[in-house]
Amino acid sequence: MLDELAAARRTMGAATLPAGDAYTMELRRRYDARVEEVWSAVTDPERLGRWLKPVTGDLRPGGSFTLDGGEHGEILRCEPPRLLRVSWLFGPDADDWPGTSEVEVRLSPGPAGDTELELVHAAAVAEPMFPTYGPGAGGVGWDLHLLTLARFLADGEPLDHEAFQTSPVGHEFVRRSAAAWGQAHAAAGGDPAHVAAAVEATTAFYAPEQSA
């Protein structure tokens, strides 16, 4: 599972959203599955619910969706089997922050029947999570979900996130993920003090025992 963490490349960049200037959490990795298989896992409601979260809504371009965890948004673009973009709102005050977050998934077929997945989550600089957690706020969560996707594509079985995060290997996964997002933050020009504090806060949020 820690090898899965190392399989991803993480960068932090910039974007513009309806709410204004944004930062991006960008993940790239390959899956040993054909592009149509990965696209199905990303867009088919039954399959999506097994590695991400159960989803309901009007699941077509222009429609809206809601995940079981409360995340919700609109389907902005859908170009099978290569590109999906959605707005992404979350938290009890999500409706007070319209246009602050978007997620785009891009798929590219590889030469050996594999698939490169690129996930770009753009979040407005003004949203309330960044000052405390930096890019790790969403980045660690996406690392956990893409780990689950790898497991699902390999053998059809989902990963129990709660059990994993409370296990020793889960704690180590979160610690390394938070540190990796700290490196991406620093490479993008983040203030060293902010980077260090954000890594510590993110680790404490996802694996509190590890920060004690």
Automatic annotation (TrEMBL):
Pfam families: AHSA1 (PF08327). Residues 32-150 form the Activator of Hsp90 ATPase homologue 1/2-like C-terminal domain. Belongs to the AHA1 family. This is SRPBCC family protein. It comes from Streptomyces lonarensis.
